[in-house]
Design a protein that fits this description.
Structural class: mainly alpha
Strand content: under 5%
Low-confidence stretches: 256-260
CATH architecture: Orthogonal Bundle
Radius of gyration: 20 Å
Oligomer: single chain
Number of helices: 9
Order of helices and strands: HHHHHHHHH
CATH topology: Arp2/3 complex 21 kDa subunit ARPC3
Distance between the termini: 40 Å
Largest sheet: none
Mean pLDDT: 81
Length: 264
């Protein structure tokens, strides 16, 4: 049985998604774009945050999300936010990703984008980890939820589990690269061979970043990828069955009708 997503981005929602993604992407790749030393481009994410909120408001106002969908989004966001601190202190052990990926698989990549963004922000609130890095983490998590769309919907059985596990590995590597892009310009200072060099050629900074990433982040990315893929392989079958059953029984986006019974 094929399960369609709860909703898909279209019209104004699609415009808001593209605007949010474009602005957020600038926040990651700005070191390769500017030609001289400047301060941290906080204004980029000051624009991205309202776009993300606008995206949710448009989805609700256009009836792309109903009350049941929003309730499910809240429950899964709370679950992911609760799972994330369980890996704190362990190298790359982050149990939240398998829930995000499997949920996005069942309820659609659009739902996955909102789930990743909201759950990461909620996790920061619960753990007291609010800071400039939260916007980066939320954007990266949202893109991971959205990227599940790369897996064809008609893939089922063992092939689906394998595809999701491989996607988990790719998602773990992507998150590591994204987080390194956040830290790299500020972590090393300006006196090392791997430092960000303001005003240098694109090839120079790109080469420095790749070297920095593989020398410093593999201890995190490889365990994260193995742990995420392993959790997906072990839990995918029962979790996907449960989520698909909930999707069917909840009848998302189906109007609630009250039927008056008249006694004959």
């Amino acid at each position: 049985m094929k399960t369609a997503g709860i909703f898909t981005f279209k019209g104004a929602s699609l415009v808001a998604l593209l605007a949010t993604s474009a602005i957020s992407a600038l926040g990651f790749i700005w070191p390769f774009l500017i030609s001289e030393k400047q301060g941290h481009p906080q204004w980029i994410f000051l624009l991205a945050a309202p776009c993300a909120l606008l995206l949710l408001m448009i989805s609700v106002s256009n009836k792309e999300l109903d009350s049941k969908s929003i309730a499910l989004l809240a429950v899964l966001s709370a679950l992911i936010a609760a799972l994330r601190p369980m890996g704190t202190g362990a190298v790359g052990i982050e149990p939240m990703w398998f829930v995000l990926i499997l949920s996005a698989r069942v309820f659609g990549p659009s739902f996955g984008f909102l789930l990743g963004t909201i759950s990461m922000f909620l996790s920061a609130i619960l753990t007291g980890g609010l800071g400039p890095w939260v916007a980066y983490q939320s954007s990266a998590a949202g893109w991971i939820g959205l990227g599940v769309a790369l897996i064809p919907r008609n893939v089922r059985g063992k092939a689906e589990i394998l595809a999701l596990a491989l996607y988990g590995i790719i998602a773990a590597a992507f998150f590591g690269i994204a987080m390194d892009l956040q830290f790299w310009p500020w972590t090393l200072g300006a006196d090392t061979q791997l430092s960000y060099v303001a005003g240098a050629a694109l090839s120079t900074n790109f080469s420095n970043f790749i070297s920095y990433h593989f020398l410093s982040a593999m201890a995190w990315d490889i365990p994260r990828a193995i742990f995420t893929a392993s959790l997906i392989v072990v839990t995918a079958k029962p979790v996907l069955h449960t989520l698909r059953r909930a999707h069917t029984r909840a009848a998302f986006m189906t109007p609630i009708e009250f039927i008056e019974r008249v006694k004959a």
